[in-house]
Amino acid sequence: MSITVRFFASVRERLGKAEVVLNAAGVRDVADVWARATGEPRPARLLAAVNLEHAGFDRPVRDGDEVAFFPPVTGGQTTFTTENTEDTEAKEDNEKRPL
Amino acid sequence: MSITVRFFASVRERLGKAEVVLNAAGVRDVADVWARATGEPRPARLLAAVNLEHAGFDRPVRDGDEVAFFPPVTGGQTTFTTENTEDTEAKEDNEKRPL
Amino acid sequence: MKVQVTDAPFDPWREIESYRREHPELAGKYGATAIFVGTLRELSHGAQVSTMTLEHYPGMTERELEATCREAAGRWDILDCLVLHRVGKLAPDEPIVLVAVWAAHRAPAFDACRHVVEALKSRVPFWKRERTASGERWVEPESP
Amino acid sequence: MKVQVTDAPFDPWREIESYRREHPELAGKYGATAIFVGTLRELSHGAQVSTMTLEHYPGMTERELEATCREAAGRWDILDCLVLHRVGKLAPDEPIVLVAVWAAHRAPAFDACRHVVEALKSRVPFWKRERTASGERWVEPESP
Q: With CB atoms 3.0 to 4.6 Å apart as the test, which of C42, C108, C118, D82 could cross-link to C92 if both were Cys?
């Protein structure tokens, strides 16, 4: 039984690896894949996908599956962690400009 | 007392005039302006403006005011009176196209 | 902020680009641009092509458009607002109106843009007259 | 419908124009185009300029974007949908994402456009890493 395991973003960085191939007889679900591939407890807010689709940790896996682990997504428009400072600035700009 | 009275769109067309200047002593409000300028009853859904601002028919008028009368507005996106036919068509197109 | 009424066809993308270029102070400030373009549809395929004539109340139109933009800027945290509205005779597939709103964040950009678009239906003095196979008529307003 | 992930800067207006030209069958059908462009903001004026690197999950990204557009087309009466998303290293003021929706009427255009934009926050596998004066860090997701 062979499962390709991929890691993205901060998960990839923390583990120091982007991909492993698991020769994993007895691996039943996504939770097992994480445990076998990393040997670590699951971080809070970890997400998973099986064959390019979002999946829960109880999702069964089969030979040949690609399983991916990653943090919550942050696509689309920019969002800075310094959000509050930013909002204040934007408001100031708004008032200063001759809209 | 001189008041400029303007008519727009279907109101203008029905009256056959775009503008009259009313020498109108004793005219108190927008309703009076309509009566004196047209001699007709007010059509349903008639709107009015005084000096380029939306106004009710009880709005007082003064010497030098510009008073306008017009039907409900239809700006922005297109809206056809054959709306239902259109919607059906749009849906059919939607289904036919390989979206 | 800019509102403009024009009787010539316009290219919404070129207008947005050139407005943005004329306002270099926006660079890096906005994370969200929400845009609406209203376009003249055909009544139907083939022969039943319609043309549209847009009448307006010069002076009041600009005043109402500016008031709408200022209202949006007071209600939502936006950086700038551009509105172009066509008047006169239009052919199918030509843009009627462009509303562009720049904001730091997406929610106020969407909300303010939609607010301005809705105002065009209720308070800005434009009136449409359409020509179809069966003649000309004034377009009736949408039910609210 | 088209969804595309690109590691090169793109011009949203040119992309909309060329997509529209490639789809002449839309002419006269749509009365409403709703567009959202997300752009990289500066953290602050002057020195504190940030750069951003966008990582994604090739294959899954496109799949999720397509699913989101199909979902929007199932839920609202829209004619077409275009999504472009940047990946790789971005400079401030560069577009990150473009979502354009064509529809007969304004309400479904706005609603579908916003739906796709919100999906980018919750289900499409993009991750941002920003560089500021104080170093690099992964961007935290917004609270829902």
A: C42
Q: Which residues are paired to B58 by β-bridges?
A: none
Q: Which of B1, B8, B59 is nearest to B30 (CA)?
A: B59
Q: What is the pLDDT of residues C59-111, one digit of tens each?
A: 999 999 999 999 999 999 999 999 999 999 998 889 999 999 999 999 999 99
The minimum CA-CA distance between B73 and chain D, rounded to whole Å, is 17
* pLDDT at position C141: 78
Exposed, middle or buried by CB within 10 Å (0-12, 13-18, 19+), for C10? middle
Query: D19, D77, D102, D116: best mutation site toward chain B, by most B Cβ within 10 Å?
Result: D77
Distance CA D86, CA D9 (A): 7
Q: Among all residues of chain D, which has the CA nearest to that of A78?
A: D40
CA distance A24 to chain D (A): 23
Give the pLDDT mean for D53-80: 96
Q: Are D118 and D38 in contact (CB under 8 A)?
A: no
Q: Which domains does chain D have, with CATH numbers?
A: 2-139 (3.90.1170.40)
Q: How is residue A91 written in tokens?
A: 């408001």
Please give the residue range of the domain that contains residue A22. Answer: 2-70
Read off the pTM: 0.87
Decide if A15 is inside a domain: yes
Cβ–Cβ below 8 Å for B93 and D29: yes
Q: What is the CATH number of the domain that holds B37?
A: 3.10.20.30
Q: Which residues of C touch D29 (CB under 8 A)?
A: 41-42
Q: How far apart are CA C102 and CA C85, in angstroms?
A: 18
- Return mean pLDDT, chain A: 82
Q: Is residue B49, in this structure, part of any structural domain at all?
A: yes
CA distance A84 to D140: 14
| pLDDT digits 0-9 by tens, B75-88 | 766 544 343 333 33
Q: Does C93 touch chain B (CB under 8 A)?
A: no
Contact A75 D120 (CB under 8 A): yes
Average pLDDT value for residue range D19-35: 94
